[in-house]
């Protein structure tokens, strides 16, 4: 298994595109001090992912930084591979390259690209990455490569051509299925959105807001149907049932128990994504509250 120097089994998922990078780095330092082992973030038309990774790695000491995910339609395979190798050489064991095929509406609208046959597209992309000459950062171990894998075939590819999977918006039961498909020796790094509140209605409001965009993307709709939900759950923003399964709602102890379910199901590492009343909400107050319940120092 490719090396990842996680100092604990829990990290953070935070898309910080709306924040100035110096403010993001300052928060990353506190995330590290709180005992969270990693910081993953998305790429959907905001900050460029490799530039942001370099800034976060350089601004922290131990924190693992992961792309969750780097959109393969945003750059060529050689650019992704050479960039990852350079970050890995500078910060051994601290950079994780998460890759994904993204979604047809985003690719066709945001990148003016063609979205077809995502599995074969990803397979060929990984082959092109492997073909980058060895003299690019010679002697350095390639950083861990995870795939945003929702369906069984992409999960299998994440094991055969990568180092594991980065499941997003999944139940602990889906984490278990991912582990079963991958077997031992591959990374499973699952994301878990959380709404820290004792008020169910507040939690549901945050959850529905979070799911609003995702619920309109076919890849997630298909994933949720495979996970046992039905068409009635696929309304814009998701049904209450879907919202309560995708987002852990409750106090810090209840959220920590949900995170533990992913770990017990076979995840090596779980990324908590703290939801607020606004997508640009500062996650630190929630992360401070959660840290003791998660057993972090």
From TrEMBL:
The keyword Cytoplasm does not apply. SUPFAM superfamilies: Bacterial luciferase-like (SSF51679). GO terms for molecular function: oxidoreductase activity, acting on paired donors, with incorporation or reduction of molecular oxygen. Residues 7-269 form the Luciferase-like domain. Signal peptide: none annotated. It comes from the Bacteria. Keywords: Oxidoreductase. InterPro entries: F420-G6PD/mer (IPR050564), Lucif-like_OxRdatse_MSMEG_4141 (IPR019922), Luciferase-like_dom (IPR011251), Luciferase-like_sf (IPR036661). NCBIfam families: F420_MSMEG_4141. This is Luciferase-like domain-containing protein.
């Amino acid at each position: 298994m490719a090396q990842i120097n996680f100092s604990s089994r829990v990290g953070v998922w935070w898309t910080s595109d709306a924040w100035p990078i110096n403010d993001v780095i300052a928060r990353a330092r506190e995330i590290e001090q709180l005992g969270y082992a990693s910081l993953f973030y998305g790429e959907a038309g905001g900050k460029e992912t490799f530039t942001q990774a370099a800034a976060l790695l350089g601004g922290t000491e131990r924190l693992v930084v992961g792309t969750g995910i780097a959109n393969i339609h945003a750059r060529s395979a050689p650019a992704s591979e050479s960039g990852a190798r350079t970050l890995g050489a500078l910060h051994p064991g601290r950079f994780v390259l998460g890759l994904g095929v993204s979604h047809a509406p985003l690719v066709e609208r945001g990148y003016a690209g063609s979205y077809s046959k995502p599995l074969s597209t990803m397979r060929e992309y990984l082959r092109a990455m492997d073909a980058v000459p060895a003299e690019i950062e010679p002697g350095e171990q390639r950083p861990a490569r995870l795939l945003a894998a929702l369906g069984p075939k992409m999960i299998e590819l994440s094991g055969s051509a990568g180092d594991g999977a980065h499941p997003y918006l999944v139940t602990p039961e889906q984490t278990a299925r991912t582990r079963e498909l991958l077997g031992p020796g591959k990374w499973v790094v699952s994301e878990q959105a959380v709404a820290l509140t004792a008020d169910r209605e507040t939690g549901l409001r945050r959850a529905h807001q979070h799911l609003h965009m995702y619920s309109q993307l076919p890849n997630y709709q298909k994933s949720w149907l495979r996970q046992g939900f039905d068409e009635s759950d696929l309304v814009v923003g998701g049904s209450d049932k879907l919202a309560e399964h995708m987002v852990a709602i409750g106090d810090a102890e209840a959220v920590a128990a949900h995170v533990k379910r992913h770990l017990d199901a076979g995840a090596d590492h779980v990324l908590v994504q703290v939801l607020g009343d606004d997508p640009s909400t500062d996650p630190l107050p929630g992360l401070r509250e959660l840290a003791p319940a998660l057993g972090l120092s």
